[in-house]
Structure formats: C-alpha cells, structure tokens
Design goal:
Main location: membrane
Strand content: 15-25%
Oligomer: single chain
Protein name: Aminopeptidase NAALADL1
Structural class: alpha/beta
Number of domains: 3
Distance between the termini: 44 Å
CATH class of the largest domain: Alpha Beta
Largest sheet: 8 strands, mixed
GO molecular function: aminopeptidase activity; carboxypeptidase activity; metal ion binding; metallopeptidase activity
Number of helices: 22
Radius of gyration: 27 Å
InterPro entries: PA_dom_sf, PA_domain, Peptidase_M28, Peptidase_M28B, TFR-like_dimer_dom, TFR-like_dimer_dom_sf
Keywords: Aminopeptidase, Calcium, Cell membrane, Disulfide bond, Glycoprotein, Hydrolase, Membrane, Metal-binding, Metalloprotease, Protease, Signal-anchor, Transmembrane, Transmembrane helix, Zinc
CATH superfamily of the largest domain: Zn peptidases
CATH architecture of the largest domain: 3-Layer(aba) Sandwich
C-alpha cells in the first residue's frame, strides 16, 4: 500500500472542499458566519499546547527507551525489523494511534564486517611473528556487552585489504596535520594512527592517502572524550566516561544516501552505478580501536616528539615515528591493518506515520528520528525515538478522542540506516522530491535527544529561531526556571536586533535533516539537551557509537529520571504544534538578515582588496542584502496588518507560501557540481576558514593559492551564485504581484 497515495487522495479532496468553502464564503452575507469559516480561520490553541506539554510523561519515555534498547539493532538486522513492527504497532494503536502508518522500503548498499574473519590491527616483527593484536570486542562490563549480536568494531564502507608499514602518529588526520608531518617524515608506505575529531572520519583516510599513507588506524583519545581520564576506575561503570576498550564505530564515506543510486530512490526499477564508480570512499584500509590498544602503539613510537597541541592523555609522550623505539618490544616491527568488510544490498525500512490536517492537509510539518544504531544505541538514536513515541502517543490520544486535529498535516518518520550515511531519509527525500519541496513547511529532527542534562541545544536555519525561542520559554526545568533562560545562561550571543539571546547552532550534515536542508531547501531544526561546557570538554557523550551506549548508561549517567528527555519532548512538541496549527506560519524571515549581513561583512573584510584588483565587485551583493532586508520589513508589516484586519484566508495562505518557500530560494542545484546533494548557497559545506558564502570562500581560497585566471573566474562565478540566491530570496518575500 502506498501511503502517499492515501495522503494524496485525502489531501486532494480536502483541498477541493476547502477551496469550495472559501469561494462560497464570499457569497455569504457578512452578518452570517458558517461553521467552516471558524475552522478555516482558527489559530494555534495555547491551552491545548499547555495540555499537551503537561501530558508528556518522563516515565513513559523511560519505558520506551528500555524497550527500544533490549537488543543491538543495526540497520536491516532482525532486531531492527522488530523495532519496525514496534513503531508500526504504536502508530496504529486503536487508543493513541495516528491516521495512518506504513513501511516505505528501499534496497540499499550497506557494509558489514565479516563474522568469521575479524578486522584487526597487528604488530608484526621482522621474523613475521605477531606480537600484538587489537581487541576483537569491548570489555564485558555488564550483561549488555555479552550480547552475541554485537557487531565487532568496524568502519562501514572502509575498503577490504591488508596494509603493512611503519607506524606514524598524525594527530587528527587533517590536511594540515599531514602537511606538517610530511615536512619531518617520508610518509610513503606508512600506517598512520589518528585521533577522532578535527575532520570527518573518512576524510582522515582520504587526506592520508594523498601523502602516501597506505593504512589508517583511528582511536578516541581520553583528552578529547574523557576530560583526560583513562584509568578504568574513572570510567564506566563508575562514571559516564568511555572505558579503555571502547571503540567508536561509524560510516566511512563522504556522501549521504544510497551509494549506488545518487539522486534517485533505491527501488527495484532504479539504475545502479558500479561500485567502482562510487565517489567519496576511502582509497585505503582503515580500522578503529580503543584507546587501550592505541596506548600500546603510541607509547612505543620513536622519532621526534609531537608538538604540544598534538599531545593527548595516554600517559606518555606522543612521538611521531616512523616505527617503534629500539628499546621497545616492538623494535623494528611493522604495523598491519587488516580489513575484511563485506558490502551487500539490503532492504531497509522507513516507518512513516501521518495525522491529516483539517484545513491545509496539503502542507506538511515533518518530524523525524532514525531508528537504527551501531549497538544498543540508548542515546544515539533511541533517546530520540523514545521521545518521538511519547509525542505521538499524546497527540494520537487527543486525535482518537476527537479533541484535536492539526490545521496542517503532520508527517512522522522513523528513518532506517541513518548510521550508514543518512540512507533512509535521503531515499525518502529523493522518492518524494517534487511533493516535499512544494508542500513541506519545516522539518524537525530529534536524533540524540539528550547528550547530557545541562541545557537545551538547538540548531537550525534562521527562520526556525523564533519558534524555538517561543516554545522553550514555555517549558519549565526541574529547577523552576524556563528552558529558554537556562539555555541563555549557558550558550548565548548578542544579536544586533534582539540583544542577548540563546545561541542557535548551524546545521551541517550530521543527521537526517541534511537531505531536507541541503537538497530540498526546507527550513530545518535539530533539538536536544546537551552539556555544560564549564563542566566537560568532551567532544561528544563518551559512550558514543560504542557497546556501552546502553539503557544502564543512559539512566545512570546521562539523564537519571528522564526529565531532560521530557523537556526535549515538550519543547519539540511545542514547536511542532505551532508550525502545524498557527494561522500564520511562525517562521522569522528577518532572522536571515543577520546571517546575510555578517556573510557580506566577512567577505568585504577578507576578500575586498584582492577582488578589486581583479575587477570583481562586491557592490551587487551588498545591494542584494539590502533588498532582502527591505523585503523582510515590508512583509512583516503586511503580516501585522493581516492579523489586525483578519484578512481572507486565501491571502493568509499566500503569505504562508512566501514564508514556507523562502528557504527554497537559497537552493541552486548547479552551484556545487562536485558536491552531491549540497545545493544550499548559505549552508553548503565549506573548506575555507572564512565564515561567509561557502562557494565564494572556497573558490577565493583556491584562487589566492594558484592565482590562475580560471580560478578567479570561478570566484566571480560563485559571487554571482551568492548574489542570485539573495536576490531570489528577496523576490520570494516581495509582493506576489511585483515583478
């Protein structure tokens, strides 16, 4: 059964009915008001929002999480399929279910370790004897780590092969790290051990290969994840810190989505490229290990000591290599990286649920979270799934009782195979590209709902800022303050327009919002609770992607009592209701002004002199930003007058379309031909350290390095892309009748 056909049929009929009702409205004498008119003009119900938040139950979230984490549930495994049925059953429940819930499946390329031949890192002496082998599994601290279904540590999509050579230490594996190292050591034929952090996983290997390295070992340093603590008595189960045997798994590729069907859904009718044609994979073998094993390797390295910023917390001086100290038991030995991963096409399911809108059923507010994990996944992703299930329970109950139905349709997504590179969400965005880009108001992502229990952490595009602030002001913390005030006290910035406000982070490509933002141009946000940076400098919560990310860990060290989960549910649910029920969409177009003005100022400060010498002017960009600002002011005045005059619903619909489509104006599918899916001119990935329009910044960096006419032409081209995007955004906000 195709759930979009169900939605389409219902929505089509509802839209025709609404249109007829609206037309009929103007033929009715003004002294009468038919029943439908009240429904069409209804606004968000503040009392209902308060009732919703009151009913979000932390104990039910705890129960959800306990159920979701009984087994490791890697994508497409039997345990993952069991959770598909759990969520389907939850969304089809007769007492609290949604209007409809369906599976949407895709046949996607995934990567798994060989069950019989484990990946490993070994030290091999000149006689060929193996004197060290990395752990096959993490320590069995609780019963959870004894589960036979736990996959051994690996990097999905890392290529098979054996690489053998002298070991070098390359810090975080950034280009600058290998450049620095290559000035001291001939890296050809070496094996590099690198820390997590600084750059993406696969980029460490791609960078290494460019300098002649033939294999990579990745580990998590206690300095980066444990606030320097490495003693077993200081780590889980005695604290939240990663045990010495903990290994961070992960996807090892640059591009998200199914690798064989870029830009098309991975269906049985879809053409698939050859595996040899896949872009963005590592060219050399790579394997993750725990810092216990990393200490054995790093603390025996010879060579000059690494600079201070490269030193970690393994209790020894980090030398660069190559090779081991003469006094070491590994003297003259090589390091060998053995990878036996297997790639296979598997059927992966998204679970989709919908609540039909009563007035604008053809407008979708989307809320999503991925389901699959690397092991038990209590925090990533099940903390988010547990919250989503509670939100749908509360809303589903109201729906079944006939007490509520949203103005716009709400679509929930439990995405499959996210850990392999945002696969389920990307395939869905591809399959329903036309429908989603034309009809989706916003996408709310709650992946890891609770990293820690200190403060809200929200990321999003500029239009989402205001509605997140409004929602967070209405949610109380256990200490009695609001989530907003607590957040502002820990993470804040000074806005030229608003003064001191909480800091909203930017969105990259780390979770399922990526295809909706970068490919479709939908207003997106990600909501979670996070750390107090005055207490910890951990790169991420320490059990991330390890066998220790369990219900026991979450309930003891991340959020005892589950009140932070509850606050996330209340905040995200509040945002969801405002977006689905407000008469005029609560999307703040003016909030992009700060971003655009800041981008222009950074470009002027950093690029102006050189651009002038090449007869390239920033003046049209400045004019475009000024035009956008004026368009915002005019539209805001129009909205204010609409509220005061209670204008006709069709005029409100027109304004809402302008608000909804603003983000789309920044999409240019031709802007970055070398970057799959990245089409957002403001938020595409950027290599340059200058925080301005990414295409302009990166081409300027290249042009100043080469000084070739071609590269300066590319700078001019990207400046045109930026100007065109800002002009398009301004045009979107201007009167529809204006050309």
């Amino acid at each position: 059964m195709n759930w979009w056909k169900i939605v389409g049929g219902v929505l089509g009929g509802a839209v025709l009915l609404a249109a007829g009702l609206l037309i009929g409205h103007f033929a009715i004498p003004k002294n009468t008001e038919p029943i439908w008119a009240k429904e069409v003009s209804r606004d968000v119900d503040e009392e209902f929002i308060q009732e919703f938040m009151k009913e979000v139950d932390n104990k039910r979230i705890e129960d959800n999480l306990r159920r979701l984490t009984l087994k490791p549930h890697v994508a497409t495994t039997a345990a993952d399929e069991e959770l598909v049925q759990v969520i389907l059953s939850h969304w089809r429940d007769t007492n609290h279910g949604l209007d409809d819930a369906q599976e949407v499946r895709y046949d996607v390329l995934l990567s798994f370790p060989d069950e019989k031949i484990p990946n490993n890192v070994r030290v091999v002496n000149p006689e060929g004897s193996v004197t060290f082998t990395s752990r096959r599994a993490e320590s069995e601290i609780t019963q959870d780590q004894k589960d036979p279904d736990i996959l051994q540590p690996f990097l999905a999509f890392a290529p098979n092969g054996t690489a053998k050579g002298k070991l070098v230490y390359a810090n975080e594996g950034k280009v600058s790290d290998f450049q620095h190292l290559s000035e001291k050591i001939n890296l050809t034929g070496t094996i590099a051990i690198v820390r997590y952090g600084g750059t993406g996983r696969v980029n460490k290997a791609i960078n290494a290969a460019q300098y002649g390295v033939i294999g990579v070992i990745i580990y998590t340093d206690p300095k980066d994840i444990n606030d320097g603590k490495s003693d077993p008595n200081q780590t889980y189960p005695y604290s939240w810190y990663m045990p010495p045997s903990g290994v961070e798994r992960g996807s090892f590729k640059e591009n998200f989505g199914d690798q064989l069907t870029p830009y098309y859904p991975a269906k049985n009718f879809t053409y698939r490229i050859k595996e040899s044609e896949i872009k963005g994979l590592s060219p050399i073998p790579a394997q993750p290990i725990g810092f216990e094993d990393a200490k054995t390797l790093i603390c025996n390295l010879q060579g000059p000591p690494a600079i201070d910023t490269w030193q970690g917390s393994l209790g020894c001086t980090y030398n660069l290599g190559p090779g081991f100290q003469p006094s070491s038991e590994f003297s003259s030995s090589d390091v060998e990286v053995n990878v036996y991963n297997k790639r296979t096409i598997k059927s992966s399911a998204n679970v989709m649920g919908i609540i039909h809108g009563s007035v604008e059923p053809d407008r979708y507010v989307m809320y999503g979270n991925h389901r699959d994990s690397w092991v038990h996944g209590a925090i990533d992703p099940s903390s988010g799934t547990a919250v989503m299930m509670e939100i749908t329970r509360v809303l589903g109950t109201k729906l079944k009782q006939g007490k509520w139905r949203p103005r716009r349709s709400i679509v929930f997504g439990s995405w499959g195979a996210e850990e392999f590179g945002l696969v389920g969400s990307t395939e869905f965005a591809e399959e329903y590209y036309s429908k989603l880009k034309d009809r989706t108001v916003a996408y709310i992502n709650v992946d890891i709902s609770v990293f820690a229990n200190a403060s809200l952490r929200a990321q999003g595009t500029a239009p989402a800022q205001g509605v997140i602030f409004t929602a967070s002001k209405q949610v109380k913390t256990p200490q009695g303050t609001t989530v907003y005030e607590n957040w502002k006290s820990k993470y804040n910035r000074t806005s030229p327009q608003y003064g001191l406000i909480p800091q909203i982070g930017t969105l990259g490509s780390g979770s399922d919002y990526a295809p909706f933002l970068h490919y479709l141009g939908i207003t997106c946000m990600d909501i979670a609770y996070t750390y107090d940076r005055g207490v910890t400098s951990a790169r991420i919560y320490p059990a991330y992607h390890t066998a220790f990310d369990t219900f026991d860990y979450a309930s003891k060290f991340i959020d005892p009592g589950f009140t932070s989960h509850q606050m996330v549910g209340r905040t995200a649910g509040n945002v969801l209701l405002r977006l689905s029920d407000s008469l005029i969409l609560p999307l703040g177009v003016r909030d992009y002004v700060e971003t655009l003005e800041d981008y222009y100022n950074k470009a002027e400060q950093n690029f102006q002199a050189n651009l002038n010498s090449k007869n390239i002017s920033l003046a049209p960009l400045k004019s475009a930003v000024e035009r956008y600002k004026k368009a915002c002011e005019t539209l805001e005045e129009t909205i204010k007058n609409l509220k005061e005059m209670q204008e006709a619903p069709l005029k409100i619909r027109m304004i809402n379309d302008q608000l909804m489509l603003l983000e789309r104006a920044f999409i240019n599918h031709l802007a970055f031909p070398d970057k799959l899916y990245y089409s957002h001119v403001i938020w595409a990935s950027r290599s340059s350290g200058v925080a301005t329009f990414p295409g302009l910044a990166d081409t300027y960096l290249q042009a100043t390095a080469s000084n070739s006419q071609h590269d300066w032409d590319m700078v001019h081209h990207q400046l045109t892309v930026a100007i065109y995007a800002v002009e398009s955004a301004a045009s979107t906000l201007e009167l529809v009748t204006k050309i």
